[in-house]
Amino acid sequence: MSDIGLPEWPQYDERERAGLIRALEQGHWWRMGGGEVDAFEREFAEHEGAEHALAVTNGTHALELALQVLGVGPGDEVVVPAFTFISSSQAAQRLGAVAVPADIDPDTYCLDAEAAEAAIGPRTRAIMPVHMAGQIADMDRLGKLSADSGVPLAQDAAHAHGARWNGRRVGELGSVAAYSFQEGKLMTAGEGGAATFPDRESYEEAFLRHSCGRPRDDRGYRHRTSGSNFRMNEFSAAVLRSQLSRLDEQIDTRERRAPALTRLLAEIPGVVPQGRDARADRVPHYMAMFRVPGLAGERRDALVDDLVSRGVPAYVVFRAIYRTDAFWETGAPDATVDELAARCPNADALTDDGIWLHHRTLLATEEQIHRVAEIVADAVRAA
């Protein structure tokens, strides 16, 4: 437990233990002979409102697979938010495509639809909205943009398990989506991921590609497509089935706590919490994010260190992707850092002064939420 008694993460109980024993004793630890991965895929697809789900090794591979099914390959372009974890862009770049950063909405920190439209060119093959911290990107405008331009969407839902937009779950929004089960995520097996698909054809292609191009019933090594080994093992799936069983209860708790924390943070002079689009009627709150404009760079970093020393699980936010060396190694657009920063002022500002608190903060009691806000206020005053 931390100094102020916040809940720990990951959370587990006898359900995970029983699932691991069940996977162990079934005698097949590989998805092709066992039953845990298949069962998890059915349960997760149902939970997310998707026609099909495919469990994979991690969220980065889920993104790469989703893009590949959409036909993304060498020479293509994928529009991605300038502010996101680097996997969003690297999934495209690993396929030989160019990742084109577009700016974010200054309130929700999600991909701005107008900026995405401006980034579309003749080689654009996909648009990747990232549901930042569980806040859903403007899927009404992005969906219309996709329909009007003919460029499909690939949702990065690594933070959005159980989210809803106008009553629709991520899997009901009409496009492929990718999820992560890395240890910090809303449900976890340490690593793992999933992709959901709106139709059988794309799911079947993804299955082939995630299993080295080999059909389920193949005994003669007749690989039908290129691919890689993105298969999830039975133990991870058993843990994830248990994690899924408590996800909704945890989201309910975060939804109750988040308004209070947001209000308390907003009352602190100089602090601006992440906003919420009213159409996002269920937000799982992967992070509690806020900005401290004017407290940037090393001062922001020192503030985060101070919060951690006081028992608050705080982190600096992601860098704008174009402000990392990794972005420029391969598949970068023909532009300079300064040119991209000028196109993406909201992402650039958030990179400098943004902070996020781990979602376990929102599993705390109301009293603890108030204590967290008091610590943030004191630390900001001292910064």
From TrEMBL:
UniProt keyword annotation of Transferase present: yes
Keywords: Aminotransferase, Pyridoxal phosphate, Transferase
Transmembrane segments: none
UniProt GO molecular function: transaminase activity
Pfam families associated with the record: DegT_DnrJ_EryC1 (PF01041)
UniProt cofactor(s): pyridoxal 5'-phosphate
UniProt superkingdom: Bacteria
Similarity field: Belongs to the DegT/DnrJ/EryC1 family.
Protein name from the UniProt record: DegT/DnrJ/EryC1/StrS family aminotransferase
